[in-house]
Amino acid sequence: MPAAPREFDISERETGTYTATVTGNDGATPVPGASLTSITLTLYAILANGTISFINGRNHQNVLNANNVTINGAGLLTWAIQIADTTLVEALLPFERHIGLFEWLTTSGAAGKHEIILVVKNLTQAV
Q: What number of CA atoms fall less than 13 Å from residue 94's CA on the CB side?
């Protein structure tokens, strides 16, 4: 997966699909789903007061072919983003960043991380 976090614009309460390839430590070699012992997703927002709010129960949630995420034999990760993933925590803001952190372990003991940022637009606020 790309090293730098990727940002995507999405409207509040909108569904979508995110895809990326799970890669080894070299950043290039795909890791097949069968070579993963675990992969989790943490989805959170940093609130205006500096605290963290976990979104849609995704706090180190198992997503190894579960909970709206699949990883195929070529290492392609597909996350079916749910309405609850894009529901605003602080409804007074014009947009909110929902940070998704994927963390995985392979059968060989290698570990990896990848971050994605959903920039959720508040449709009830004038921008």
A: 2
- Measured in Å, how far apart are the chain's first and last C-alpha atoms? 32
- Check residue 14 and give left, alpha or beta (phi > 0: left; psi -120 to 50: alpha): beta
* DSSP classification of residue 12: T
Sign of the CA dihedral with 63 first, then 66, 71, and 77 last: negative
**CB contact at 8 A, 113 and 2:** no
Per-residue pLDDT tens digits for 44-99: 999 989 999 999 999 999 999 999 999 999 999 999 999 999 999 998 889 999 99
Contact 3, 93 (CB under 8 A): no
Distance of alpha carbon 54 from alpha carbon 38, whole angstroms: 20
The whole-model pTM stands at: 0.92
The string of DSSP letters for 82-110 reads: -GGGS--SSTTSSEEEEEEEEEEEETTS-
CATH fold of 6-121? Immunoglobulin-like (2.60.40)
